Amino acid sequence: MNKDSGDFSFSFKALGSIAAILTAGYAIGHHKEQKSLKIRRSRNRKIMLASLPLALLTTGPLTRKLIQKNVAKAITILTTDEYGKNVMELWTAIHRAGVQNIVENNLRATQGTTINRPIGSSKRFDGFDNLMFVPPQMTMLSKSGDTAVDMKVTLGPKATKPLTVNIPLLISGMAYGIALSEPAKIALARGAKLAGTATNSGEGPYLKEERDEADKYILQIANWPWGLRTDQEIASADMLEVHISQGGQKGVFYVAPDEIKGKARKLMGLSPNQGISGLPAPPGVQSAADWPILVNNLRNKANGIPIALKLMSTDKIEEDLGLAVDAGFDVIAVDGTQGGSLVSNPTMQDDFGIPSLHALVRAVRYLQNRGVREQISLIVSGGYFNPGSCLKALALGADAIYLGTVPLYALANKQHQKVIPWEPPTVLVSYASKYNKKLNINLSAERVSNVLRSMAVEMEQAIRGLGKASVKELSPSDLVALDTFSAELAGVKRAY
């Protein structure tokens, strides 16, 4: 390095040091003169900010050298230590078993009992990705952008008082007390009303505040001691739904006394130290012969509203649907294995049931073969996270889609900062969480409504692009498959 270069380097460092001193000096001065005029404080801040880059340039080379030294040392250790002493062993373990399996097995080792995984399975199942829509171009024109699209859906057409909603997207059952808090349930009900659709009570105890906020209200007949509901509760509903199981949950659960406190415990009719156990079916159902009796009893109380059935889709789906048709249900909701739950274990979420697309295709085929497809409405759920998959399900024969995870995420939209990074956003909506009072009901309701309306508008635009003016005009002929498996499964043409 020549003399001029050395002088320049020295001058540059000196200038940086002076800048650093100025920065510190003005910071101290600013602290002492908090009561000084606003214009002076503003000037001091500007000088400080202007000095910071020079100060950083001075310390930059030292920081770079320190980082370089430590990174080089770490890489040397990683590439020379034998595996028994090398943290890269963890990298191999992660690739072999997966992060989720490692975490969940550590949770099992810590708890010594079953673990409950929130939301649902993370496994990737056969879905709608390889099905594509076929829009018209030369042979037929699409609809103009101002064409009105009929998105209304009527559920239970053979009932005296069928349920009609403005969009084919419904909020699925999420239980108060067992899963969600009162603010979360109120926000879901209000959001559904704003979007022109229905919300579902879930299998928890009846929450009057939720019903008061909802327009269209689906009340579940649940597998719990309170599951048959009172006559007054049934009279408040627009549809009843007998809940047997769902995509991520099947079986009987026990809830310990310390897991449910407060208002939900009172509504469940529990004493202070009493736990509660779920039932294999709604109260009174002991065998397959009892299903028609249950439907008939509900029909006598329902005052003409539809009676639906919700169940997990399995390889015995045709057998289950046969019993449902014979029992007289007006609506059937089939939940694929992608369906979520806040209170089920990983094995049930990952390894029970069949995927949603399989369930949809088999359910439509069975109802058509029985000659009852026009009399019995079909709702599908489990893994429907975007408008495209919902639209494809409608084209393949579904009447409506239950959404759970989508509105659940929307509840916490713009409110994550209240708990992140120390807690997951789900604590804002969980009944058992100490953070659920932080949820802003009005904001949550607005976000739920927004996501439902956004999805519906996107579906409307796609329907116009297909040259149609009603969701009812969709059919399998609007789809093409990119692979043989998807073509055979969905019963549509291949793209090759």
Question: Major beta sheet, specifics?
Answer: 8 strands, parallel
Distance between the termini: 68 Å
The CATH homologous superfamily of the largest domain is called Aldolase class I
Number of helices: 16
The CATH topology of the largest domain is TIM Barrel
Q: How much is the radius of gyration in Å?
A: 30 Å
Strand line-up in the sheet with most strands: 4-13-12-11-10-7-6-5
Description:
It comes from Dehalobacter restrictus (strain DSM 9455 / PER-K23). Residues 158-467 form the Glutamate synthase domain. InterPro entries: Aldolase_TIM, Glu_synthdom. This is Ferredoxin-dependent glutamate synthase. Pfam families: Glu_synthase. The protein has 496 residues and is of the alpha/beta class. It folds into two domains: 3-80; 131-494, TIM Barrel. Helix content is 44%, strand content 11%. The chain is built from 16 helices and 15 strands. The protein has helices at residues 3-32, 38-80, 88-97, 99-111, 182-195, 208-213, 231-235, 263-268, 291-302, 317-327, 346-351, 356-370, 387-395, 405-411, 441-465, 484-490, and strands spanning 131-133, 153-155, 163-165, 169-171, 198-200, 216-221, 239-243, 254-255, 276-277, 307-312, 331-335, 377-381, 400-403, 479-481, 493-494. The strands form four sheets. Strands 4-13-12-11-10-7-6-5 form an eight-stranded parallel beta sheet. Strand 6, helix 7 (231-235) and strand 7 form a beta-alpha-beta unit. Helix 9 (291-302) crosses helix 10 (317-327) and helix 13 (387-395) packs across helix 15. The longest helix has 43 residues, at 38-80. The chain is globular and about 80 Å long. The chain starts with a helix and ends with a strand.
